[in-house]
Specification:
Number of domains: 2
Helix content: 40-55%
Distance between the termini: 22 Å
Number of helices: 5
Strand content: 25-35%
Structural class: alpha+beta
Number of strands: 7
Low-confidence stretches: 4-8
Radius of gyration: 26 Å
Shape: elongated
């Protein structure tokens, strides 16, 4: 009879530890989601005064890059031949027909792009310029393919959705963590 009680006691202790481990796991994931919630809240709108415009000719045809859920348009211009200018997924989604743009743009065609001033200053001042630079505005053949206001609007849509999802996930993880901690403390 005594052996049976010891086995039950060991099982009970193991079960208690499981609740504690589960509680800490949910707390960790809740903190993880809170971090991304914070990142989403602190994302700021880019102002026109933060951009530098560059007018140049295409050094090579635009390349469309599709992999792992990302879609980019890569541009190389004569003004900065060692740097690659990238229109990321947000900009790619805004451009009405990115494939048509990539097919019509030819080597030597003039275009105007806008990048962050801090990236521009790094390219000019640094001995090793930035290799990949994000593009926030694109004007080609007197047509604005990508504007800053459209980029900011799309970015804010993604931000709102991210904040909602991360808030829900953080709340659920915190609730599950507290629930398992209470179970551990009661036993």
């Amino acid at each position: 009879m005594m052996k049976h009680k010891r086995k039950m006691s060991a099982y009970s202790t193991q079960k208690d530890k499981t609740h504690l481990i589960i509680s800490f796991t949910f707390a960790f994931y809740g903190s993880f989601f809170l971090f991304f919630l914070y990142k989403g809240i602190t994302t700021k709108v880019i102002m026109p005064s933060e951009l530098e415009s560059i007018s140049s000719q295409l050094l090579s045809p635009p390349e469309i890059e599709l992999h792992r859920g990302t879609r980019n348009i890569n541009l190389r211009i004569q003004a900065f031949p060692k740097s690659e200018f990238v229109i990321g997924s947000i900009g790619f989604d805004i451009i009405i027909n990115p494939v048509a743009f990539a097919k019509t743009a030819k080597v030597g065609d003039s275009l105007s792009i806008s990048i962050l001033k801090k990236d521009y200053e790094k390219m000019i001042v640094a001995s090793k310029p930035e290799r990949i630079i994000s593009v926030y505005e694109l004007k080609y053949n007197n047509y604005n393919f990508l504007t800053l206001s459209a980029h900011n609007d799309e970015s804010m849509k993604d931000r709102r959705l991210g904040i909602i999802v991360m808030t829900i996930l953080s709340a659920v993880m915190s609730w599950l963590s507290i629930k398992n901690l209470i179970k551990y403390l009661k036993s």
